[in-house]
């Protein structure tokens, strides 16, 4: 989670679905603790509550959510979470590696079409930067 995201979260104290003030740092730590203890369903639930309560949760939350979903057997949701994490941090090697692993784990071997070397070279900025960075 970036420093700007953490400061924003601490300043605005989002409210979770039940209407109770949600401390983002506490929810993130709760999810991490559940994941480390092997309770992937509780970890995914904690990360999902954080995503629902915060406008832009940051790449780390989506990455951890994807890990939890993948571990509990929800491959499609895991891939979707990794894609959201990659959108926010396209050069993060952990996100890229886990997304590739999840795609290889799919029975249908989901792989996006790769552009030619000429296209990648001509439009290098499109593939090297996140959409927010391009804007």
Please give a structural write-up.
It is a single chain. The chain is mainly α. 28% of the residues are buried. The chain contains nine helices and no strands.
Primary descriptors:
135 residues, single chain, mainly alpha
C-alpha-based Rg, rounded:
16 Å
Count of discrete alpha- or pi-helical segments spanning 4 or more residues: 9
Distance between the termini: 21 Å
Largest β sheet strand count, sense and barrel closure:
none
pLDDT averaged over residues? 81
Helix percent reads: 55-70%
Poorly predicted ranges (pLDDT <50, ≥5 residues)?
A: 10-20
Number of strands: 0
What would you call the structural class?
mainly alpha
Order of secondary-structure elements = HHHHHHHHH
CA-based shape? flat
Strand content is under 5%
Topology:
Elements: H1 3-12, H2 24-36, H3 40-53, H4 59-71, H5 75-88, H6 93-105, H7 117-122, H8 124-128, H9 131-134
Helix pairs in contact: 2-3, 3-4, 4-5, 5-6
Offer a concise description of the structure.
This protein is mainly α and 135 residues long.
């Amino acid at each position: 989670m970036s420093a700007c995201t953490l400061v924003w979260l601490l300043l605005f104290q989002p409210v979770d679905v039940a209407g109770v003030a949600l401390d983002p740092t506490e929810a993130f730590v709760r999810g991490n603790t559940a994941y480390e203890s092997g309770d992937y369903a509780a970890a995914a639930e904690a990360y999902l509550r954080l995503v629902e309560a915060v406008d832009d949760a940051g790449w780390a939350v989506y990455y951890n959510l994807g890990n939890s979903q993948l571990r509990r057997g929800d491959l499609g949701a895991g891939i979707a979470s990794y894609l959201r994490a990659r959108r926010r941090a396209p050069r993060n090697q952990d996100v890229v590696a886990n997304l590739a692993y999840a795609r290889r784990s799919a029975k249908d071997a989901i792989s996006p079409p790769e552009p030619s070397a000429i296209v990648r070279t001509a439009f290098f900025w499109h593939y090297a930067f996140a959409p927010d960075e391009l804007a």
